[in-house]
Specification:
- The protein is mostly helical.
- It has six helices and no strands.
Length: about 210
């Protein structure tokens, strides 16, 4: 009887130990499964965040330019062009040059000041002069060329505008109309270029 009781007691202890072991194993499995699920969720969230960041970068560099961004880039070029043209007209008039040499000087100075405004911005961002010149050429060449073509075309075709002097009101209001026309027609060009990662999109990455 004592032997049977001892055997029963031993089986009971073994059974309880086995149950505890199974509970521990089940708990360990659940914990492992939970950790694996959490790691998977973390990986998924990290991948999603990285994908979102990549989408944001793609949109910034060439995904679709807004009209506001294009207008800002055009206004930037227009400022340099206006400074160069007015200065060219002043110098040409002061030296007694004819219409064609004065216009050529005005165009050259328009490119010079247009590039200079971009150079100033990217040099402040830390680029060396050689790299900054490459950025300015890539960003502004087409924009300034289109703007100068429209601007000087309006002045050349407007009756009497080429012969107007700086003290003549006609010179200034024809110049204003020419610059407005250049702004309106160049803005879509800049929007198209920025939307493809070209033009002033090259400059924007150095401003952030």
């Amino acid at each position: 009887m004592q032997h049977d009781a001892h055997a029963a007691h031993t089986r009971h202890d073994n059974h309880e130990g086995h149950g505890a072991h199974e509970g521990h194993a089940g708990h360990h499995g659940e914990l492992h499964q939970h950790e694996g699920h959490a790691a998977h969720e973390g990986h998924h969230e990290g991948h999603h965040a990285g994908h979102t960041a990549h989408q944001g970068h793609a949109h910034h560099t060439g995904g679709g330019a807004s009209w506001a961004m294009a207008a800002q880039a055009t206004l930037h070029c227009l400022t340099g062009c206006a400074i160069g043209e007015v200065l060219g007209m002043i110098i040409g008039t002061a030296l007694g040059w004819g219409n064609m040499p004065t216009m050529i000087l005005a165009i050259v100075l328009a490119f010079f000041f247009g590039y200079s405004l971009t150079l100033r911005g990217v040099l402040k961002a830390g680029l060396d002069l050689k790299a900054a010149i490459r950025v300015a050429l890539a960003a502004d060449t087409l924009s300034i060329a289109v703007m100068e073509l429209i601007d000087n075309g309006v002045i050349a075709l407007w009756p009497g505008a080429m012969d107007a002097h700086l003290d003549d009101a006609k010179f200034w209001w024809v110049l204003a109309i020419a610059l407005v026309a250049a702004f309106i027609l160049t803005t879509p060009v800049n929007k198209w270029m920025i939307g493809r990662g070209k033009g002033h999109a090259v400059v924007h990455q150095y401003h952030h």
